[in-house]
Backbone:
């Protein structure tokens, strides 16, 4: 993989542990993590394990496919692969923390919120991301961030995860 | 039941290619052995068949027993006795009774009556269409389950080719052959005898050979289309025989039968207006008759069947044109076909084959038509040379409509045995 | 992901990859029908016209629900009350519809080949919802999805299709699709309802289906129309039920996990006894549920060539 390493796996582990402590500190009663497919899902699992270690008990976790809510469907040349959504708990009244790998324009999160609302009425929706790379096009801000990174528009930030890519790391490349 | 030991007879069993002087052992209603051994089972009834032929009991693919509905002409009991007297151990009765045999209840009635009062095996042929009307299929599956061995609208053709096609296809599921009475009713019109010189001389409306041949052609083509087993009833024309010959060359599952009267008589016999010569299909030209005999001899015609059609005298003494079609045949069949053997037109083995194993295989009858060990003990013992004079008044059949009364022929049934029981003794 | 075809007209046009894509997408879409709010905005602003020129309640309803759950705008056309009754022919009707710019046209017609004719004449995507005796591709796809769901696999299965194969577009599409995906197919029923040349579909004809039942993983029963008895294809419905229908008795030698399917509507007591139709082997209702998912998947996949005007 070409590009510059932004975070090593050790760095990622430390950042995720910090986010876990922040989340626990704000109270996890009636709160669930929902990973946004695809990379948000293993990231949410990683985060959930850390949270469990910190607070001594597990936290609810689900996964959300947002492709059907994207606002660019009429422009893509191929339909995105649709994967199942799995929310094994009721959304209504729950505090949802959306988890994604990279926050960029904010459109994905907008779609995720629309999808979530179709499942019920959450008590609140917060956002946890590994990397915030700026370039927002929508008024969306993360509540928990692994690392803020300044990027140019032709750069690309990739979060690699052990379960998908074999190792944990964050890369940036042109 | 006592065992039977038939000794010294010339045993002819075409199915097993046996022709020679042997002994036949019958035990428990089955053939135990055909052997040169002389051991006689205990308590056996011994029949000395010296000078006679011992053959599997004859099987008639085609007869009319008139029960239910017209018992005044014939019924299952009298018909079976006529069969036994003629050397037949199995007969197949057609469905044109009243009511028509187009549903389980009529088939079961026939089967039960036969069990009670028939001295030979009686196998029902079910109808192809309801009421023989040619419009809707009969309950073919039910007929098969109730004991029908084939389906036929005989007496009438199935004029609608689509219905004949569907019947042939549907019958496959139940492994039933379809017997075709090949006749185009429109061409038949009001005809009463073969259309030819004789009909012109006699001033009677004619039934041309094409009446039969167009339908034989149609049914053979449907056989090719559907792959179903087709059996053509009472072939009467040279053209018909030729078509069957061609169909067999193409390996189509077609078989056919001929009656003793078509093998013996021609249109000329109608001179004199004897209503007993009025049959359907009619007696045809001498050329047709010769080709029928040749077809029987070379195996193109598989079987001999009587088309035994009893009619009361009231149905025949109304002038030729008004008379019912048909003649009785069970008790005249053997001497008539033996005439062809004696005249060296048809070998004895072929004749016997046409009355035994061929009908059995057409109907898929297991254990019949042969004297193989384990078969049902259905046996006929006849003297092929003994002179007989046909006496209609002595018939076991209730009806007397035959043109052969007084004929001097050769061939006499000595014993008819069904299931190990002697049902006729001359 | 995309399909190799702009239309869904015949199973023959789809590649194996297309079929797997459709199945995978349908499996994901199925979950939407379980949500409290059964709607996603995916086809918002798209217009789908359902042209059902042959009567249908279930298929049309299934398509309409699929379209509405994807937030598409739907319009329904049927033969009665349409200009076609006034003498307008099919192509004219379709061109008029096309002038109103629909994105997808779903068409069911009693004439075999009608959807193909329409697809050549208009620009919109066309889905064949059943043409004459020819094909019913969406039915076959939902059947395959159901088989995969119930059996857990596609490979190595043997499916029996029994009944009026001659007149059945469902049977034809099923045979083509199952064979494409490597499923063995046995067909049975009265000989009068078995078309000539059926072996060319790569299926085995079994004259007595009772003999084939022990080897089947799935048995698909086809509906027999009452009118067929009037056409003398068999004597009457009673005989049909007795010799070609299934009941608990006829299934006594079947595999314990043999599944029963039926494209519907079911003639209870004719091709299938009520106990079997409602019994534990039957997945007939699963088929209906999967029908909506498959149709949603097809609409989603066809629409996705936006930007290629």
Residues:
């Amino acid at each position: 993989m070409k590009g510059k390493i932004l975070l090593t796996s050790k760095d990622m582990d430390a950042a995720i542990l910090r986010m876990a402590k922040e989340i626990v500190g704000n109270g996890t009663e009636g709160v669930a993590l929902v990973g946004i497919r695809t990379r948000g899902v293993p990231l949410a699992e990683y985060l959930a394990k850390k949270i469990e270690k910190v607070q001594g008990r597990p936290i609810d976790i689900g996964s959300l496919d947002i492709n059907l809510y994207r606002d660019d469907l009429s422009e893509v040349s191929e339909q995105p692969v649709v994967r199942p959504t799995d929310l094994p708990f009721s959304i209504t009244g729950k505090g949802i923390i959306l988890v994604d790998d990279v926050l960029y324009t904010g459109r994905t999160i907008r779609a995720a919120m629309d999808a979530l609302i179709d499942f019920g009425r959450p008590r609140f929706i917060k956002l946890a991301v590994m990397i915030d790379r700026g370039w927002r096009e929508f008024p969306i801000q993360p509540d928990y961030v692994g690392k803020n990174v300044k990027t140019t528009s032709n750069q690309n930030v990739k979060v690699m995860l052990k379960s998908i890519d074999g190792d944990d790391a964050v890369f940036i490349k042109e | 039941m006592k065992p039977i030991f038939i000794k010294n007879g010339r045993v002819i069993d075409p199915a097993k290619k046996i022709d020679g002087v042997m002994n036949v052992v019958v035990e428990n209603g089955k053939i135990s052995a055909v052997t040169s051994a002389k051991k006689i089972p205990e308590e056996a009834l011994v029949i000395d068949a010296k000078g006679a032929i011992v053959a599997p009991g004859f099987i008639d693919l085609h007869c009319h027993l008139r029960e239910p509905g017209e018992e005044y002409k014939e019924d299952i009991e009298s018909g079976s006795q006529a069969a036994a007297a003629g050397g037949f151990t199995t007969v197949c009765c057609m469905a044109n009774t009243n009511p028509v045999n187009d549903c389980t209840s009529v088939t079961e009635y026939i089967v039960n009556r036969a069990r009670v009062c028939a001295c030979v095996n009686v196998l029902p042929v079910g109808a192809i269409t309801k009421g023989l009307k040619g419009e809707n299929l009969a309950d073919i599956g039910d007929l098969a389950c109730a004991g029908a061995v084939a389906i036929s609208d005989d007496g009438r053709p199935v004029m609608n080719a689509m219905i004949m096609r569907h019947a042939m296809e549907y019958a496959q599921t139940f492994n039933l052959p379809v017997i075709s009475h090949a006749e185009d009713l429109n061409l038949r019109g009001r005809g009463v005898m073969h259309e030819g010189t004789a009909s012109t001389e006699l001033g009677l409306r004619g039934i041309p050979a094409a009446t039969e041949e167009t339908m034989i052609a149609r049914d053979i083509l449907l056989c090719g289309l559907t792959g179903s087993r087709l059996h053509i009833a009472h072939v009467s024309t040279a053209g018909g025989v030729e078509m069957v010959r061609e169909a067999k060359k193409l390996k189509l599952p077609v078989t056919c039968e001929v009656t003793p009267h078509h093998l013996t008589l021609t249109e000329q016999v109608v001179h004199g207006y004897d209503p007993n010569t009025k049959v359907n299909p009619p007696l045809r030209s001498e050329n047709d008759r010769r080709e029928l005999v040749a077809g029987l001899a070379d195996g193109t015609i598989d079987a001999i069947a009587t088309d035994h059609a009893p009619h009361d005298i009231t149905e025949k003494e109304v002038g030729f044109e008004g008379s019912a079609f048909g003649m009785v045949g069970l008790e005249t069949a053997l001497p008539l076909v033996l005439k062809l053997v004696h005249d060296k037109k048809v070998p004895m083995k072929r004749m016997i084959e046409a009355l035994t194993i061929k009908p059995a295989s057409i109907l898929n009858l297991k254990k019949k038509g042969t004297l193989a060990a384990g078969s049902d003990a259905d046996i006929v013992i006849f003297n092929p040379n003994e002179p007989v004079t046909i006496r209609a008044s002595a018939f076991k059949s209730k009806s007397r409509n035959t043109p052969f009364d007084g004929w001097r022929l050769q061939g006499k049934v000595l014993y008819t045995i069904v299931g190990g029981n002697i049902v006729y003794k001359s | 992901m995309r399909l190799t075809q702009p239309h869904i007209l015949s199973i023959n046009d789809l590649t194996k990859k297309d079929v797997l894509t459709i199945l995978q997408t349908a499996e994901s879409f199925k979950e939407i029908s379980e949500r409290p709010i059964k709607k996603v905005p995916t086809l918002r602003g798209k217009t789908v016209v359902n042209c059902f020129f042959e009567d249908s309640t279930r298929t049309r309803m299934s398509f309409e629900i699929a379209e509405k759950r994807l937030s598409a705008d739907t319009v329904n056309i049927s033969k009665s009350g349409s200009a076609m009754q006034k003498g307008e022919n099919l192509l004219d009707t379709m061109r008029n519809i096309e002038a109103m710019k629909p994105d997808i046209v779903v068409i069911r017609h009693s004439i075999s080949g009608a959807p193909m004719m329409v697809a050549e004449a208009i620009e919109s995507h066309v889905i064949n919802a059943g043409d004459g005796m020819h094909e019913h591709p969406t039915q076959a796809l939902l059947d395959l999805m159901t088989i995969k769901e119930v059996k857990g696999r596609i490979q190595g299965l043997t499916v029996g299709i029994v009944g009026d194969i001659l007149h059945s577009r469902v049977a034809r599409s099923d045979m083509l699709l199952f064979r494409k995906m490597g499923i063995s197919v046995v067909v049975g029923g009265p000989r009068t309802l078995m078309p000539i040349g059926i072996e060319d579909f790569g299926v085995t004809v079994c004259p007595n289906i009772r003999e084939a039942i022990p080897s089947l993983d799935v048995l698909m029963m086809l509906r027999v129309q009452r009118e067929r008895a009037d056409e003398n294809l068999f004597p009457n419905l009673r005989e049909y039920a007795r010799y070609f229908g299934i009941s608990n008795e006829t299934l006594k030698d079947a595999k314990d996990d043999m599944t029963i399917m039926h494209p519907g509507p079911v003639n209870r007591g004719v091709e299938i006894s009520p106990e079997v139709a409602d019994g534990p082997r039957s997945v007939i209702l699963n088929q209906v549920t999967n029908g909506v998912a498959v149709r949603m998947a097809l609409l989603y996949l066809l629409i996705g060539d936006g930007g290629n005007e």
In short: Residues 57-362 of chain B form a domain with the TIM Barrel fold (CATH 3.20.20.140). The longest helix of chain B spans residues 209-226.
